[in-house]
Amino acid sequence: MSENIGMSSCCLSGALHEGKPAGRVDTIGGLQTYVAEPKDGSKAKSVVIISDVFGWEFNNIRLLADQYALAGFYTYVPDFHEGDSLPISFLQNIEPPLQKRETLSVSEKATNAAVVPTTLGPWLIKHREAVSRPLIDGFVNHLRMVPGTNKIGAVGFCWGGRYAILQADGKTEAEGSVGGVDAAFAAHPSLMAVPGDFDPVIKPLSLAFGTKDSLVDEKTRGQIIDVLSKKTEVDHEIRIYEDQVHGFALRSDWSSDKDKKAMDEVTRQGIEWMSKYLA
Description:
Strand order of the largest sheet: 2-3-5-4-6-7-9-10
Structural class: alpha/beta
Largest sheet: 8 strands, mixed
Oligomer: single chain
Radius of gyration: 18 Å
């Protein structure tokens, strides 16, 4: 039986990063998309970033896309929420970073926890798999038809992390289903079904988790490791980041040297994985 790993207020916490994204906005495959191009403009190595619940306009994810472009990838951040991402204001008013969270009183924690079902519940229903996966599959399929595109990778975070994993099933239109990438990277994915989401994986898959992730505990990580370890023909890796909470790869507090270092390292993890398998 597959176990679904849910979401908590950690999904709505974190820090907004400063900086001006260098890319542009375009309509691709029918979706508004942030595009960050590599210096040579080549689409040979393309990356689709699947956002967390804060969506494609979140400054942090656009700055990250710029980093992938600098590393040589033609990078897309599509609006898979179709204009219905959660507002950035939730970053600060639902749950603070770990160092502050640990000082909260019981009543303050209870207040934070109560916000989760009223905020996330309706949103998750609206953006359930039956709605979201066809959008993601269709976008990947569209890119396959873009001249100059060779290999495609999926990079996902939190809500989007699960869909990056699902893209690693390698499906193609010729096999009767759209979607499917050449390699995938997921940082602190949520709403996973274990082992259900991992059984179909046939493409290289890299995962990143924090030891303080309230959604994916040590037992769950162990179950994922067990499933992937049986796939001897599939290249995979799982890296664990000490004292990092859910969302650290995209929303770490840059005022903390330890958190900033972890975010830099997990960004490098994704870029190196794509460099290896999209070459």
